[in-house]
Write a sequence for this structure.
């Protein structure tokens, strides 16, 4: 399940709904790995007061589906949830939640990290920060990705 949201969300409620919807495979699920990313109030040594997160509609969702499919091909994954904010975001707001259900914790941990790192390095999202100094800037660097061993 992949969702892009322009409004604030509760990552724990999203995970709860995800687990309720995937209850049919509950007997097979032995582990759920969850990553929640939130907006910081600083970056590169500067105070940040807000951020606008832009994306490429259609292409972003396709890239996220491809990332999830790649993870499913690498690990024994049962279900995946990716929820990502777009639009205006404030410090402390959740930006992303990735939840991976698997039979075993190793697969859940590794797939969750892979999805999150691939999302940061491959998915077409762009961040524009509003600094406390009244300046704004586009964030130029992102994660270099994660290569499973």
């Amino acid at each position: 399940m992949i969702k892009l949201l322009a409004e604030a969300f509760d990552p724990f409620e999203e995970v709860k709904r995800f687990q309720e919807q995937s209850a049919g495979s509950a007997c097979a699920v032995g582990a759920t790995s969850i990553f929640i990313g939130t907006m910081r109030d600083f970056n590169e040594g500067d105070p940040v007061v807000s951020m606008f997160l832009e994306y490429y509609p259609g292409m972003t969702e396709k890239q996220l589906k491809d990332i999830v499919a790649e993870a499913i091909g690498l690990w024994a994954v049962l279900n995946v949830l990716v929820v990502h904010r777009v639009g205006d975001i404030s410090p402390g707001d959740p930006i992303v939640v990735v939840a991976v259900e698997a039979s075993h914790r190793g697969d859940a941990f590794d797939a969750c990290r892979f999805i999150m790192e691939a999302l940061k390095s491959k998915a077409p999202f762009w961040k524009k920060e509003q600094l406390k100094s009244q300046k704004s800037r586009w964030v130029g660097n992102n994660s270099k990705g994660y290569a499973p061993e």
